[in-house]
Input
Amino acid sequence: MELGLDGTVAIVTGGASNIGRAITHELGAAGATVATFDRDVDQARRTAAEVEATDGSAVVYGIDLTDLDATQAAVAEVETGVGPVRTLVNNVGWNGRAKFFLDMEAATPLRRRPEAVDIAWTVAFLVSERARMLTGQVLSVSGGFNMPR
Output
């Protein structure tokens, strides 16, 4: 499915691993150049190399997003060196295990844990031309937890 992302630039915060890694892969595969903002520079470089090995484009910015000046400088560097940013995926999360997430399989009507690619596919759609009438979306990942039983 053509998503209309060829030649666009996306910033993915926390794009080095887990859900962010999957999002970086999906957007890169859809034709976007992905600027990964992550503190784990080594893992971000591995993720970028994986994207580039499949003919995608990714660049790495090793920054701590709690440093506002560094974040603003990195955004300016992306805009100058890569191109105007069309998409921001604010994926950065916390370090640590979340017990509620690990027990999600038993607690949800879907009876399975979400996989990173489940979220990545949704993000790729939401930032595409196919979702042009959808704006300002916050993606709640619950596997149907809030569905009536």
The chain has one domain: 9-131.
